[in-house]
Write a structure and sequence with these properties.
This protein has 449 residues and is an alpha+beta fold. The protein has ten helices and twelve strands. The protein has helices at residues 2-40, 50-62, 92-98, 138-186, 201-251, 257-288, 301-318, 337-353, 400-406, 412-422; strands at residues 66-71, 76-79, 103-107, 112-121, 126-136, 297-300, 322-327, 332-335, 360-367, 371-378, 426-432, 436-444. The longest helix is centred in the middle third of the chain and has 51 residues, at 201-251.
């Protein structure tokens, strides 16, 4: 559309330039016939000639203009307006013309064309004088106005055509994107079909990105449903056990004190288990929150791990399990002390819980220029290879019956992984069934939000 709008000015400017050039050439050709007679009649040297005067007057009358003859002394010897005869005229154009150079000057504002043409004596080869002819250019102005109207009409038609074609083309070109938009809107509904739009490279890339997003959403939805189901089951199980125990007591009369104490101890154990599940769920929810809830401060990692081991040594002692810390150098890092403590506690506590009597848990701490590393090794039962990729999932248990015995909720490693990822770190597991397990944690020394 912009070139169409600019076209009007280019066409009009070109028209004016050509019209002026053509008019100047026509004037010059007609003037040359008169100039030849002027040169032959010695008119410029003072000789009078009615024929020359008549030709000059006819020329001025034909173009409704003005003709002036200037001799070699710069004196005006002929003026068809009878205004400036015998006056002296000196200007840049006059001087250049006496040197043999024609000049043409078009004044568009006042609408006239002025030309200066030398009068040359062919025998002497000298310039005897010059002719100055000035004519109105109303015809050029009128032609420009008419052409401007025509061009304006053409512009209007072209602009309408361009808009129509652009609108039609845009509808065709954006139709594939409409399908993508519709598919995105259907995501909230029941449409879970993959998208295929190979019309353009861009739509194909968008469709592939959409399909990847759809798969992730399906996986997240499946994970959410599984999580809700597991939470419901895990919270309901202790309540069911307590209900059964309570109903058993209520159904009996004169319950022996020993049996009453035994049932109440079981109920208290189930309450503790319920409380443990709820606490772990709350910790997991906190881990899932945004980084704005992370309280970062520079922390002595050596002291943090030593405190974790100090709290867990009484539990390890009940099973005769040795806790060992190997620290190679002092480590200071920007971490959330509470969340990292919880993550380290879960790893070490798992090493104690799923260990054999008289076993060991070895914790080592090391550091380089960018990260610090924590390794937790144990001599426990190990993890089957097929289960290792699932152990960080919520409520996943390798051996549910054994986990129930030792009070596991299936949330500890999920909490640990969330805490490590919150610090932009990484956690890996290496294990062989019957030979123990090793967890390695890598966390940056400087926290980046």
């Amino acid at each position: 559309m912009i070139p169409v709008l600019v076209m009007r000015y280019a066409v009009l400017a070109n028209y004016v330039s050509q019209a002026v050039e053509q008019k100047a050439q026509l004037l010059e050709r007609q003037c040359q016939q008169i100039l030849e007679q002027i040169a032959d009649s010695e008119y410029m040297h003072g000789s009078e000639s009615e024929q020359v005067d008549k030709l000059i007057d006819q020329m001025a009358s034909l173009y409704s203009g003005r003709v002036i003859l200037v001799n070699s002394n710069f004196r005006i010897i002929k003026d068809t307006y009878d205004i400036d005869e015998d006056k002296v005229i000196i200007s840049e154009e006059v001087l250049l013309t006496f040197q043999g150079t024609n000049s043409t000057n078009y004044d568009e504002e006042n609408q006239f064309l002025e030309m200066t043409i030398p009068i040359t004596d062919e025998d002497a080869g000298e310039t005897d004088g010059i002719m100055i002819i000035s004519v109105p250019t109303l015809d050029i102005a009128n032609g420009k106005t008419g052409l401007s109207t025509t061009v304006l009409q053409m512009q209007s038609i072209l602009l309408l055509l361009i808009l129509g074609v652009a609108f039609y083309a845009s509808r065709i070109l954006t139709r594939p994107f409409g399908r993508i938009t519709q598919s995105l809107e259907d995501v909230a509904g029941v449409n879970d079909e993959e998208l295929s739009i190979p019309d353009y490279t861009e739509t194909q890339l968008l469709a592939e990105a959409y399909n990847r997003m759809l798969k992730r959403m399906k996986a997240q939805e499946d994970s959410r449903q599984e999580f809700v189901s597991n939470v419901s089951h895990e919270l309901k199980t202790p309540i069911t056990s307590m209900k059964v125990l309570a109903d058993s007591l209520l159904a009996q009369e004169d319950v022996p004190v020993e049996l009453y104490k035994e049932f109440m101890a079981d109920i208290a154990e189930e309450i503790d288990r319920e409380n443990k599940i709820i606490s772990d769920l709350l910790s997991l929810v906190k881990m899932d929150k945004r980084s704005s809830d992370v309280h970062i401060e520079e922390t002595n990692i050596n002291q943090l791990i030593e405190l974790v081991l100090k709290r867990l040594r009484p539990i390890a002692a009940t099973r005769d399990i040795e806790l060992v810390l190997e620290s190679f150098k002092p480590v200071f890092a920007e971490v959330d002390e509470t969340k990292l403590t919880l993550a380290m506690s879960n790893l070490v506590e798992n090493g104690i819980k799923y260990n054999k009597a008289g076993g060991w848990v070895h914790v080592s701490l090391n550091v380089d220029t960018r990260y610090f590393y924590v390794k937790v090794e144990d001599s426990g039962m190990g993890i089957p290879e097929e289960a290792q990729e699932h152990i960080f999932e919520r409520f996943y248990r390798v051996d549910k019956s054994h986990s129930r015995e030792i009070g596991g909720t299936g949330l500890g490693l999920a909490i640990t992984r969330s805490a490590v990822l919150m610090h932009h770190g990484a956690i890996k597991v290496y294990s062989k069934e019957g030979e123990g397990t090793t967890f390695t944690v890598r966390i940056p020394l400087k926290y980046v939000p």
